[in-house]
Every structure is written in structure tokens, then in C-alpha cells.
Amino acid sequence: MTTSTTALPSPVPPAERMVILDIIRGFALLGILLMNIEYFQRPLQALMLGFNSEQSGLDYAVAWLSFTFVQGKFYTLFSLLFGLGFIVFIDRAQQKDSAAQALFRRRLLVLLLFGVVHLLFIWGGDILHLYALVGFLLLFFINASVKRLMVWSVVLLLIPILLIWLGSLAVEAAMQVPEEAAKLQASFAADKEKLLQDIARGDVLYASGRYWQVVQWRMYEFQALYISPALLVFVPTILGTFLLGAALGRAGVFSNLEQHQPFFWRLMWLGYAIGLPLALIYGIYGTEVEVISPSIRNAALMTCSTLANIALCLAYMATLVNLYLHKVRFIGVLAPAGRMALSNYLLHSIVFTLLFYGYGLGLYGEFGRAVTTLMALTLYGFQLWFSQYWLQRYQLGPVEWLWRSLTYGKRPALKI
């Protein structure tokens, strides 16, 4: 027999949604697309090489703007929203006297399924599987106070910076010993040569490979990128940002925006004051940073990048809140796209892999960054219109409906 303590609650009705979170989510969706568009035409392992300096003219300018003001900031924003959503989800579920933790685990398992399908069969740059796996760690903080969430957030976000500095200092020390320096230089050269070979192989497969060849290559890329020491950076960064969002949610700053308007004004100005100079430093001096080449200089620049990502993420978020509180109407168009963020995110991958990859139209590598960015903006503009059109007729996006159905074990109403 099912009791009231184990029954799964019903999904949250659309009327109970926080519109500002949908607006921020819709904006984050744009930023993620503007970054991902590069890697629909570039193997994911090229991330290890950093900025693509082979571009010129308008392509270089567009790529640099994205590198400086978009890259890292919007995944951070999306991660923050995930943590904030965790608190909203758990608190609402607990109010209904339900098995909140069991429900959240089911929600994560379904998200993990979506992520694995996306990663293997659509596009290898998936972030959903990481969100789902790291999301299970949030259950250790289910009743944590705002202070505890903030402390853990800061500690976790500092771990990658500390690891980068320790690695760089160790390499610098070893370089002072001639024998060790020669070994390290040979090792770095071999690693880079292997990476360049992988990137060249990926270019060929994405440009002209058959579908199942590309699927197999995605599995190889996944192993190279994720089943590696990089997890020591990915996991603390994602969890730390989750907890930062959870702290904002538990503090209630989004439950009563008007009351917390001074907080958002301070957050906006402080975020820009810290984030813009650091982002510009990284944008100017960090275009030659390669993850595979540890050095004191690279560690300093990557520290600037990490801090800029957090500061500008918070500044962008606070700016949207302030515009919303001042009733600036145009930002409202972002909300429908934010309500359908998962469907729209997956559509990005479907559209651009079919457009660029060899098993689709085969346009891989045919366009520079300026043109592909224009393509991204065009698709996003279409999504703004279509999301509004869809939600005038249906309560949920198609993938959101499936997510809720599998999470709650029953099909919510779809049509309005």
C-alpha cells in the first residue's frame, strides 16, 4: 500500500513557475549556443588547445568576443540555475509531504538517460550527463543552511584553482632540473602530437564519416575528455556552482525580488567590477593558453578566467533581475524559451549536426565563425518565436513533458 509519506507529488503547475528563472534560463540558452557553435565544426578535444588563433578578420573578432565574454560564463549560469532549481524542487516536494529525495533521484536518472542518448547518438558535447551525476551529490546538502552551502561552494570552486597552481608549480620546479626538464618537454610534445592527431582524425570523421563511425568516435572523445584527471576540475566546479545557486535559492532572494532589489544591484555592479577586468585580461593574454602545457603564466590566466566566469555569471543574472524589476518588457520574450530549455538545447545539437556532419548535409568546416554565429542567432530567434507559439497551445515543451512523465510515473496534461 502506498502511504502519504512515499507518494510522489504532482508536477508544479505552470502558474506556480518563477518567471524570472525562465527568463534567465532562456538567456543562458543563448550563451550556451554561442559557445557550442564552435564545436559543431571543431572536434571537442580541441578544447584542450584553447582559442583558435588561425582565424582572421571578422571571424577572429566574433570568436574573441565569445571567448572573452561568453565562454564559461553561461555554463556557469546554467549550473547555478540547476542548483537553485534543486532547492525549489526539494522544498516544494517536502511541503507536500512526499518522498522528495526519491523523486529527485528519479528526476536525475531520467536526465542522465537523456544525457547519455544525447552524447552518444546526437552530439558529444553534452553537459546533461555530468549535471545528473554530480546532481546526486546535492542530496548531501538537502537540509543545509545558506551559510553551509556558501562555505562548501567557495571551497569546491577553489579546488580546481588550487590543483592548477600545484601542478604548474610542480612543473616549474621540475624544469629547473635539466634531466627532468627534458623528460617533461618530451612528454608534453608527445601529448600534443597525439592530441593533434586525434583532432585531425575527428575532423575527417565529422566531415565525411558515416553515422555509426561518428558514434564510435564520440565514445572515444568521451573517454579522452571525461574519463581522465579532468574530472578533478569538472566535478568540484559544477558542484560548487550548484551549491552557489542552492544558497541563493535557500536565502529566498528569488521568492521576493522587490525586497531583495538592493542585493541584486550590488551583485550586478560588483560582478561587473570584478568580472570585466579579469575577463579582458584573459581575453587579451589567454588566447595562447593550452591546458596540456602547465606553467605559472597559464595558471594565473586560468585563475582569472575561473573568477571571471563566476563574477560575470552573477552580473548577467543580476542584470536580468533588475531589468525585470524595472518592467523592461523585451526580456519577457526569453521566458518561453527558458521554459522549454531542455527541448531547445537538444534541438541545437540536432539541427547543427545534421547541417554540418557528413551523414547530414556535409557542410562541416565550410563556414567561418561569423557566419556560424549568425546561424546560431537565427536558430535562437526561431526558438524564441516557436517556444511562445508552442506554449500558447501546450503546457510543456515536448522533452520537458517526457521528463516529467518519467519522473512522476504519470503523464501530465500536455494541451492547455
TrEMBL record:
InterPro entries listed in its UniProt record: Bact_Transport_Assoc, DUF418
UniProt domain DUF418: residue ranges: 248-410
Keyword Membrane attached: yes
TM ranges: 23-41, 61-90, 102-121, 127-144, 151-171, 226-251, 263-285, 305-325, 345-364, 370-391
Keywords attached to this entry: Membrane, Transmembrane, Transmembrane helix
Coiled-coil segments: none
Record-given protein name: DUF418 domain-containing protein
Organism encoding this protein: Alkalimonas collagenimarina
Lineage: Bacteria, Pseudomonadati, Pseudomonadota, Gammaproteobacteria, Alkalimonas
